[in-house]
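Here is one chain, start to finish.
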Amino acid sequence: MPVRPYTFTAAVDSWTFNPAITIALAVIAAVYLLGVHRARRRGGWPWWQVACFMILGLGGVVVCTMSSLAVYNHTHLWALATQLTLLLALVPVALALGDPVRLARTALGDRGRTRLDRILAGPVVRVLTFPVVAAAIATTFMVVVFFTGILRDGLTHAAAMDGLYLAALLVGCLAALPMLGAELLPDWCTAPFRLLFAFGDGLFDAIPGVLVMTTGHRLAGGWFAGRADDANWDVHTAGALMLALSELVALPLFFIVFFRWAASEGAFDRRAAAQPAVRVAAGEPSVTEHRAASSAEPELMRPWWETEGYGPRNRPFRDQSREGQRD
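Its structure:
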């Protein structure tokens, strides 16, 4: 247990070593780099995605679990709250920018890709990765952890704390991967709906921080009451940091979705403007004529729940992580 106050010097030079997390990160990094090697042999893989996954993603896990936050999380609730919030909200965004699901589909053979597509197209994955469900799971997870005995168990047993780290990261990936990575959402979840879901996710993420900041109860079974200099200040600071960090992290997700939408629309208009003769020769209406016809006479369509299936036979997995490349 640290005895010196948490100063700037302590924040910089206080580190701990977690062998279980180190081994897990080494295995994940090796598997990802192997997938990058195979993907580059089959057509290439952007290095900026490798940097996002390895440096920002896995490096963020190291900072959250082995830096001064991990050294002081047994004496300061705000340090533990910062760890779990970053693992839930920020690190999954960096991992999703590395697009591990699309990398797996690119690196695997035909049989492996078929098995993966079958899993991704299953109803369990579809439900868990739906933005509203994923946001509700993340909010429930944080509330349950901070307002039950789970937090004290994590502070008492190192293995339980590692389990909390892993659970927070997995819950965060349920929301980040569909929004930024592989296409795991229904067909009707186009870019405007994703933007709306990203905005709603930021609202959901604020709930745990507000509850912790305004609570009048001792959290973690009173664990921090005799350890922090001011227990009330510690609890209020923890809630404020949870609120601020969750909202601050929600902004990059919102703007990434927005700029991807703008880029996809711009790419479509440029392709349409560059090939007017081809469209006319093929008997297709121009973009202007298509939009005019659509606004003047809207087409009647069946509801999505009648046209979409969720099994691999009804709706095969579609790899559209970059919507700007779609015609």
